[in-house]
Amino acid sequence: MSTFTKPSMQTSSRDDAVQLNRAFKGLGCDAAVVVNILAHRNASQRDSIQQEYETLFSDDLKKQLAHELHGHLKKAVLLWMKSPIERDVTTLRQALTGPIIDVKAATEIICTRTSSQIRQIKQVYAPTFGTRLEFDIECHTSDAHKKFLLAFIAITRYDGPEIDSVLVEDDAKAINKIGVKKSGVDESTFIQIFTERSSAHLIALASVFHKMSGKELGKTIKRETSGNFKYALLTILQYADDPTKHYATVLRKATKGLGTDDSTLIRILVTRAEIDLQKIEEEFLKKYKRPLPEVVHSETSAHYRAFLLSLLDSKY
Q1: Strand, helix or coil at 270?
Q2: pLDDT tens for residues 25-51?
Q3: 179-to-176, 183, 221, 300 alpha-carbon distances in Å
């Protein structure tokens, strides 16, 4: 369920384009106008505004926004103006090759996308950046984590609800054997199961494994694996079980302690605003006993704060 709401009064894309152009005039940008317009327009409306802006002013609205805005607000608005596939492609490239490598962000995006979505990402990634996604993963990841990601983006997985109960039991037995081995971890077993099986299969696997061994699959992964490889496996398992719980947990980690992980905060709020952000809010409140808008308000400031709270449809 989306938190996103259209403006109560209908405005034309042409009027929005004109107001945005006025906001760019003079000394400095009127960021309040940018936020008040763009944070309250859905994807179709944003596309129409961009088309009208180019028609009226012979200029690219996204380039103008990149020139006029700064800091976290700039990052959030520019991500908001992209299509879902453009967001994934851009974020993956920045996470894998940017000034600050963020392998966890790249891992989370890859591990929460369907085979169809990954295929689209790969198709757009190569012509956009002149290199294949596989190459950037090869260069900026290592060991079991690298093998896992390369396998995950190469394999087409079934995404439906049906499961093969015999295969589920075989997988549970294979993972249970890992826990009783005396030497080393059989990474290939985890890689094969978690790159080839559907979400429905993994949910059933967790249940069968618990009945068979008396152990939780997530805790077994934590005990038997480490680093980014462990993070990838847990991300897939948690997302398969409940995407809203997964994102609530990610947001909590991004906002607790000293300092805020603004990149993660922006990525989750922007990419989920038109999908299931209301459910994520509900799960966040249930799990952490604090309203998500209150947390966002306390961790951000100025127009950046206003923009994110608008995505949350909050008057906080």
Answers
A1: helix
A2: 988 899 999 999 999 999 999 999 999
A3: 5, 10, 10, 44
**Chain centre distance of CA 214:** 33
CB atoms within 10 A of CB 316: 13
Token readout for 193 is 């199961």
Radius of gyration of the chain (CA): 22
Is residue 170 exposed (0-12), middle (13-18) or buried (19+ Cβ within 10 Å)? middle
Query: Whole-model pTM?
Result: 0.93
pLDDT reading at 246 higher than 90 = yes
Q: How many CA atoms lie within 13 A of 307 on its CB side?
A: 28
Residues 6+ apart with CB under 8 A from 82: 62, 90
Res 3 pLDDT > 60: no
Assigned token pair, 155: 């394999």
Specify the pLDDT at position 257: 84
SS3 of 161-175: the string is CCCCHHHHHHHHHHH
Res. 11 pLDDT band, cuts 50 70 90:
confident
Task: Name the DSSP letter for residue 157.
Answer: P
Tell me the two tokens of residue 126.
């190569």
Q: Other CB atoms closer than 10 Å to residue 77's CB: what's the count?
A: 24
3-state secondary structure of 25: coil
* Helices 227-241 and 187-196, packing angle to 10 deg: 30
